[in-house]
Every structure is written in structure tokens, then in C-alpha cells.
């Protein structure tokens, strides 16, 4: 099954949605290897991997651009904000589980496992980023990074 089958019509009045981006093999390979699309993964593992990435990258904007950025508590506030946003996103995933799609991607139990993995992974990713940033002076002294 190819993408071109669904977005290309020979009628010039209807147009075509094919672009070099959505029709390239490299982009299609990248999309197919994202955790949500990867074949043979458990739902909890998918959620864990997605959550780790989101928790990790959410800490930076909250810690460095938040209202407490110039205080001693800026990093802690960023950690709590990142975990809170991951929690809100988990509630959204749980709400999405109640919708029916055709064909269903996961059943209700699968979405619940994905949301649980997302929550654990998101909190873990934010905590990991917090630890790296908190102990960066120590790590740079050990590695002798100028």
C-alpha cells in the first residue's frame, strides 16, 4: 500500500497532494521507524519510549524560559512543570482511548498501557534531564571540559 494511491488523482482539477517531502523514501522510512508506528513493539514500551523523549525535551524550555529562570528554584520549577505537562498529556491519551477509530490502532487496554508507559517515561525523562543539568558542573569537572 503506497501513499500515492490515496493522494494522487489523474484529474488536474482535483490536484495532487504529492510533494518531495511526503512522497520520499527517506521521510517514509523515518515515519515508519517512529515508536508509534514500529512493528512488533508492546504498547507499554511504545509509551515508555515516547514519554522518555517528551519528558527529556520538555524540561529545557520550562527551566530556561520559565518565570523562575533566574532563581535557584528555576530548575526545580522546570522539572515540576515538565512532569505536570506529561501528566496532562497522559490524561489526554486516556481520554483518546475512549474514542473509536476504524480500524482501531489499539484496544482500550492497549491505549491504557501506552498512557501508563508515557507517564512513567515522561517523568523519568524529565528527572534524567534534571539530574544532568543539576550535576553539570560536577560532570564537566570530571571530564575536564573547559
Question: How are the SSEs placed, and which strands pair?
Answer:
Layout: H1 4-7, H2 25-32, H3 43-65, H4 74-96, H5 108-134, H6 136-143
Helix pairs in contact: 3-4, 3-5, 4-5
Descriptive labels:
146 residues; Photosystem 1 Reaction Centre Subunit Xi, Chain: L; 2 domains; 64% helix; disordered N terminus; PSI_suXI
Structure description:
By secondary structure, the protein is mainly α. The chain has two domains: 1-33, no CATH class; 42-143, Photosystem I PsaL, reaction centre subunit XI (Photosystem 1 Reaction Centre Subunit Xi, Chain: L). Helices cover 64% and strands 0% of the residues. The chain contains six helices and no strands. The chain has helices spanning 4-7, 25-32, 43-65, 74-96, 108-134, 136-143. α3 runs antiparallel to α4 (74-96) and α3 runs parallel beside α5. 23% of the residues are buried. The model is unreliable at 1-5 (pLDDT under 50).
> What is the CATH class designation of the largest domain?
Mainly Alpha
> What is the general shape?
extended
Quote the beta fraction. under 5%
Instruction: State the order of secondary-structure elements, H for helix, E for strand.
Output: HHHHHH
| Total domain units | 2
- What class would the helix/strand composition place it in? mainly alpha
Tell me the span between the first and last alpha carbons: 53 Å
At the fourth CATH level, what is the homologous superfamily of the largest domain? Answer: Photosystem I PsaL, reaction centre subunit XI
Low-confidence stretches: 1-5
Compose a concise summary of this entry.
With 146 residues, this protein is mainly alpha-helical. The chain has helices spanning 4-7, 25-32, 43-65, 74-96, 108-134, 136-143.
Amino acid at each position: 500500500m503506497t501513499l500515492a494511491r490515496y493522494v494522487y488523482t489523474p484529474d488536474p482539477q482535483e490536484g495532487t497532494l504529492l510533494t518531495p517531502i511526503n512522497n520520499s523514501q527517506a521521510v517514509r522510512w523515518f515515519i515508519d521507524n517512529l515508536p508509534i508506528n514500529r512493528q512488533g513493539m508492546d504498547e507499554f514500551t511504545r509509551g515508555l519510549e515516547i514519554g522518555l523523549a517528551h519528558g527529556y525535551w520538555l524540561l529545557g524550555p520550562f527551566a530556561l524560559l520559565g518565570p523562575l529562570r533566574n532563581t535557584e528554584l528555576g530548575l526545580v520549577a522546570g522539572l515540576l512543570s515538565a512532569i505536570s505537562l506529561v501528566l496532562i498529556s497522559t490524561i489526554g491519551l486516556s481520554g483518546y482511548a475512549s474514542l473509536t477509530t476504524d480500524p482501531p490502532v489499539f484496544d482500550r487496554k492497549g491505549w491504557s498501557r501506552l498512557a501508563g508507559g508515557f507517564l512513567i517515561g515522561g517523568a523519568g525523562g524529565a528527572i534524567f534531564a534534571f539530574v544532568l543539568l543539576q550535576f553539570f558542573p560536577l560532570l564537566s569537572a570530571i571530564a575536564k571540559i573547559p
